[in-house]
Amino acid sequence: MKFSFETDSLNINYGKTPILWDVTFQVPQGVLAGIIGPNGAGKSTLLKAALGLVKPLSGKISLLGEPACKSRKKVAYVPQRESIDWDFPITALEVVLMGRYGRLGLFGRPRRADREAASAALELVGMSAYASRQISQLSGGQQQRLFIARALVQNADIFFLDEPFAGVDLATEKAIMGLLRRQKEAGKTIFIVHHDLPTVEEYFDWAILLNTRVLACGPVKEIFTRENLSKTFGKSQLLFDEAAALSAKSLSGIL
User: Fewer Cβ close by (within 10 Å): the C or N end of the chain?
Assistant: First the structure.
């Protein structure tokens, strides 16, 4: 089996505080994987370490069978919306075009083919009408679609998305998931930092349950259990999420 993302005894500290401790797992290629855990569990740090944005204290990270430092050009990253300067004077099309810069080199200029690819990606995420709009004038859901379009034009093999559904409505969330499923069907591997437990079984076929260390990693149907969730979140949080899920089903008429 080929693995898209592997770690071996990964340890990361911020100062003297351990964020990730003895993290070891393997994820195969071609899956939609949820990285699941409470706030402060190290989920975003895991992605940033794989991208070289955070330096591990010890341990190894491999992407597509190679050391992460050799394969990062094959990875597309959608950061948390709160980490982006939305007032920066740049249009939607220009943001998507930035996804091609890794191919152009330091002084390369976008070609016609690059602009056509950016326009096609905007159309794919339903954002063609907003190509010339400044990014601060977009809604939260539109902004998220925009950065997914930027990831798509990179033609990456692995996608890292850090809380892509934060601040978006349910219709946009479902549309984004549809886009990502099509990428998976095309052979890509998708990793999503995700908080909404009731949708995990619907959205993902693989999961990493993380809270400083890995509590479970594997197919959702095998490891997404009450026991593993209790280890990851604690019983009080798990009960709260179950109550919220039952309430939502009742309001929608399912119960």
Answer: N
Lowest-confidence region among 80-89, 130-139, 175-184? 80-89
pTM of this structure: 0.85
CA 79 centroid distance within chain: 8
The pLDDT tens digits for 1-53 are: 779 999 999 999 988 888 999 999 999 999 999 999 998 899 999 999 999 99
Q: How many Cα atoms within 13 Å fall on the side-chain side of residue 186? A: 14
Q: How many CA atoms lie within 13 A of 42 on its CB side?
A: 26
DSSP H or E segment with residue 55: none
CA distance 235 to 231: 8
As beta bridge partners, residue 75 has 158
Q: Which fold is adopted by the domain 3-252?
A: Rossmann fold (3.40.50)
Domain boundaries, given as residue ranges, for the chain: 3-252
Give the closest residue to 96 by CA, choosing from 76, 74, 80, 82: 76
Query: How far apart (Å, rounded) are the C-alpha atoms in residues 222 and 176?
Result: 25
**Helix 226-233 with 235-252: angle, nearest 10 deg:** 120
Helix (H) or strand (E) holding 75: strand 75-78
What's the CA gap between 237 and 154, in Å, rounded? 38
